[in-house]
Structures are given as C-alpha cells and as structure tokens.
Amino acid sequence: MKALGIAATGMLAQQTNVDVISNNIANANTTGFKARRAAFQDLIYENRQREGTQTAEGGTARPTGVDVGLGVQTAGVVRLSTQGGLAQTGNQTDLAIDGRGYFTVMLPDGGQAYTRDGAFQLSAEGQLVTLQGYEIDPGIVVPENTVQLEVGEDGLVQAFVENDPIPVEIGRLTLTTFVNDSGLRALGDNLLQATEASGDPLPANPGDPGVGIIRQSFLENSNVDIVKQITDLIQAQRAYEMNSKTIETADQMLSTANQIK
C-alpha cells in the first residue's frame, strides 16, 4: 500500500507551506518585504495500464490508462513582487520606490546586493548608507552643514548648505531592474542577490519606461496581506490534517488485512 508514503509527502509539503506563510506573517511590518508563496507539483506516476493499449475484448484501444500518483513535492518558493503601500515618515533620508526597481547596495566584500528598503541613514562621513552601514551605489555624500536634502522623483539629489538658497547637486540615484525578480536570492537584512535565474542587473534612471520613481520621506510597507495569509494558513492546516487522516486510514486497513486468517 503506497498511501502511507503518498500522504507523508503531502504532510512534508504542507510543513513547507506553513513555514513560508509564517515567514510572511512574521515580516508583515518589514520595510520593502515581498510575500512568498510555496508552489507544488505532483511526483511521478506508476503506470499500471497504459492508455491506448489493445484490450483483450475485440482488440479495441483502451481510452484511458491506470496511473497512480506517488505524491507531491515543493517545486519552489515564489516571491510576489507586487507594490507595497507607501507610508509617509517625514524623514528626508527615507526613500521609497513607487514601481519597479531596486536600490543597489555595496557589500563589504565588494559585491553588490539589491533592496527595496529605503530606510537610509548618514554615516559619520556623510555617506548615504543602509541600516547595516552598507553604502548605496552610486554613492551619495552629503556635505557638512546641510540643512535640507532633496531627492527628486528622477533620483536627482540636491543639498541646501547653510543659508545658500541655491541647492548643490551631489549625485543621482539609479534603480536596477531584473527580467525575473523571483530569481533573486534572499540574503537577509532586506538584501537580494542576482543569480543566473534573475538575469543580469539592468541599471536605469528612475522614471524611465518600465522603472519606478523615487518618493522622498516615504517608506514602502510590506505587501503581505494578513487576511490572505491567515486564510492560507487554515487551508494548509486542513490539508495537513487530511494527509494525517489518510495515514491513519491506511494504517487501519493494513491492520485489518493483517488480522485476516
């Protein structure tokens, strides 16, 4: 009886499903977080009667076969790249992306990572950095005695220094897009890394066709829908219970067969 093994794969799949859902719920208030969804696919099938074969009665062709599936497996965890809501903060170094794209971050090892988290701060040298202290790329250095910082929707960064009414242009932020956002590898700390599956990074200016714009003094909320996550959690729980019930039923059937004399 293969029901025990089949149901076991179902229980393992639902455990993964619950893990993904719980991570979504845990990050419901994480800036720029994108919800994930577990995707599943059926396993191979045991073919007991092949469709189209000749039957013993008159040589007619069998219209259907007899295929018994061997369970389910996790095919992947898909990142849902829908736009999160924008929340106004009043902090002039908080930046949100309204549309597609990622900020580029320089890692300590010289590599690059990408993020939707625009909760930037100023380092001791006046550089615009992430909450982990990583510099953004291209780098922005804010002059001393800056009284106001302005970031345009097109990424142009200007600083008003002391009492000078004319702003000083100190750089321009760019955004990076990917052909397949779901192919980015999550590193933690709200950072993503490019992979072969994501495709090469495509730098662009904010506001270019297919690229979002920058909103100063805003942060992007997580796109996690709590109501949907709770509903999915209930469905996963019920599916787990049904698989465990299948194991219980198969065990009872085996026990009954074992008692036949």
Automatic annotation (TrEMBL):
Residues 96-159 form the Flagellar hook protein FlgE/F/G-like D1 domain. It holds the Pfam family Flg_bb_rod. GO terms for cellular component: bacterial-type flagellum basal body, distal rod. PANTHER family: FLAGELLAR BASAL-BODY ROD PROTEIN FLGG, FLAGELLAR PROTEIN. Belongs to the flagella basal body rod proteins family. Residues 215-260 form the Flagellar basal-body/hook protein C-terminal domain. Its main location: other. This is Flagellar basal-body rod protein FlgG. Keywords: Bacterial flagellum, Cell projection, Cilium, Flagellum. Residues 6-34 form the Flagellar basal body rod protein N-terminal domain. One of its GO terms (biological process) is bacterial-type flagellum-dependent swarming motility. PROSITE patterns: FLAGELLA_BB_ROD. It comes from Roseivivax marinus. It is found in: Bacterial flagellum basal body. It comes from the Bacteria. SUPFAM superfamilies: Flagellar hook protein flgE. The basal body constitutes a major portion of the flagellar organelle and consists of four rings (L,P,S, and M) mounted on a central rod. The rod consists of about 26 subunits of FlgG in the distal portion, and FlgB, FlgC and FlgF are thought to build up the proximal portion of the rod with about 6 subunits each.
